[in-house]
DNA sequence: TGTCCACTGGAAGGGAGGGCTT
DNA sequence: AAGCCCTCCCTTCCAGTGGACA
């Protein structure tokens, strides 16, 4: 009991953090360094909402971690606050279509945000639309619907359709209006969109340039002042976070994650300051967590394919082709006495694992010997092993490869 | 120079599992 | 309970395709 009390007590008086929340991804800070121009542009486009007019739809493009989401949310919250003071009716709705990754869920979220009652499954998309229209048609409100990472929605079957309907929703509303803000980091999306959607959504287009290393440092410093106690960061910490983030992913979100996790590690270890070693540990921990999370939630056959890759690549050191992986995968299903999925499906699973960043694959033509995908593990084999071993169905299959990994460890 | 391998990737569809409305 | 509809994972079918080899 006393142990628990000690843990809680020390949590109450953190030596490292003043306010850890200021480093969480969904925190919208008071100021966004180096995004003043973008804020001004977005704000001036949305401002007519305060007069009860429908603002232009906006299409925002920029690489990950360039502050698109932060700017939009920042402007949205200021807009709503100003509207409250001024007595005008403006409501912002934010949906990230990467995490709400089907057309149904996206509009279900919009529906819920505007106060319609929407079950999480069971209704047709058309029915949900009907409910949304009913809920907002005569509320005399300007709704600003932000579709973040809109490329994920656009790529889904039926996604285009939902977007089209959304761009046309105003014709079915009475006193209310809906303005759309589409956000994406994928340049090719623009080409693949339905031209009608494209022209409607792109009434105004904005491009967010990436931050350079110096700007990244400014951002981290501003945020660190709010989040950490004075003087707990060693001098190299922030430049290192900026540099690592720039090298690995090149975005501000990554940099902030690194800084936060480094602080958490320092705290767990009872250190009084955050050092560069903590940052390196943070980098590894973030990667481990990501792999564990991704692999844990994979369906059985995807895990089996991963197991096969682990074996064929000799514990993650070599390459494997689709054909080799499929043969090994079949052997595994035979051992387990379960059904085998088709080659086509395994090919698809490999493409999915590539997208998730667990493997890297290149489609290569070997001339006479056909065209195939050459696959390489993109994560730490031991972490992958651990994540796979959690699945009781697979556990036993891993013995042989476990020995290989263990031996390599001891050398 | 053409062939032909070993796949890739698009498209459509199905059926199990689940939840809605009426 | 019937009748819909949704998602997820999968199948079937098929039209490509880059380049080593004959």
Task: Give the topology, please.
Elements: H1 2-12, H2 36-46, E1 58-62, H3 68-86, E2 90-96, H4 103-113, H5 125-136, E3 142-148, H6 150-155, H7 159-167, E4 177-184, H8 189-192, H9 195-201, E5 204-208, H10 213-227, H11 237-248, H12 252-268, H13 276-296, H14 300-312, E6 320-321, H15 322-336, H16 343-356, E7 359-365, E8 371-377, H17 381-389, H18 392-395, H19 399-410
Parallel strand pairs: 1-4, 1-5, 2-3, 3-4
Antiparallel strand pairs: 6-8, 7-8
This protein binds a DNA duplex (22 and 22 nucleotides) through residues 102, 104-105, 119-125, 127, 299, 301, 321-323, 341-345, 347-348, 351, 363-373.
Structure summarized in a few sentences:
By secondary structure, the chain is an alpha/beta fold. The protein is 54% helix and 12% strand. Helix 10 crosses helix 11 (237-248), helix 11 (237-248) packs across helix 12 (252-268) and helix 12 crosses helix 13 (276-296).
């Amino acid at each position: 009991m006393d142990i628990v009390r000690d843990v809680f007590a020390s949590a109450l008086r953190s030596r490292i953090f003043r306010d850890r929340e200021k480093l969480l991804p969904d925190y919208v800070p008071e100021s966004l360094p180096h995004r003043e121009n973008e804020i001004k542009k977005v704000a001036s486009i949305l401002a007519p909402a305060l007069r009860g007019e429908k603002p232009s739809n906006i299409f925002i493009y920029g690489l990950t971690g360039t502050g698109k989401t932060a700017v939009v949310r920042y402007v949205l919250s200021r807009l709503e606050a100003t509207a409250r003071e001024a007595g005008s009716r403006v409501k912002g709705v934010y949906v990230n279509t990467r995490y709400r990754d089907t057309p149904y869920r996206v509009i279900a979220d919009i529906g819920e945000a505007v106060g319609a009652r929407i079950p999480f499954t069971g209704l047709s998309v058309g029915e949900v639309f009907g409910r949304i229209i009913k809920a907002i048609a005569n509320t005399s409100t300007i709704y600003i619907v932000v579709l973040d990472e809109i490329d994920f929605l656009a790529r889904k079957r039926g996604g285009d359709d939902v977007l089209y309907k959304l761009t046309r929703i105003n014709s079915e509303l009475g006193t209310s209006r809906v303005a759309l803000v589409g956000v994406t980091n994928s340049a090719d999306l623009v080409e693949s969109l339905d031209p009608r959607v494209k022209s409607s959504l792109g009434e105004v287009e904005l491009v967010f340039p990436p931050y350079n290393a110096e700007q990244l440092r400014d951002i981290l410093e501003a945020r660190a002042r709010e989040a950490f106690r004075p003087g707990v960061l060693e001098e190299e910490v922030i430049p290192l976070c900026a540099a690592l983030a720039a090298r690995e992913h090149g975005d501000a979100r990554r940099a902030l994650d690194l800084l936060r996790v480094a602080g958490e590690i320092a705290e767990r270890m009872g250190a009084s300051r955050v050092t560069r070693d903590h940052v390196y540990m943070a980098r590894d921990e973030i990667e481990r967590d990501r792999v564990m999370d991704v692999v844990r939630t994979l369906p059985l056959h995807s895990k089996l394919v991963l197991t096969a890759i682990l074996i064929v690549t000799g514990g993650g050191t070599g390459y494997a082709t689709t054909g080799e992986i499929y043969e090994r995968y079949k052997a595994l299903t035979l051992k387990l006495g379960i059904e085998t999925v088709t080659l086509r499906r395994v090919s698809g699973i490999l493409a999915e694992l590539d997208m998730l960043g667990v493997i890297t694959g290149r489609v290569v033509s070997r001339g006479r010997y056909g065209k195939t995908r050459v696959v390489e593990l993109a994560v730490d084999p031991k972490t992958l092993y651990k994540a796979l071993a959690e699945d009781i169905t697979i556990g036993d299959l891993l013995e042989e490869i476990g020995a290989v990994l263990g031996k390599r460890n001891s050398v």
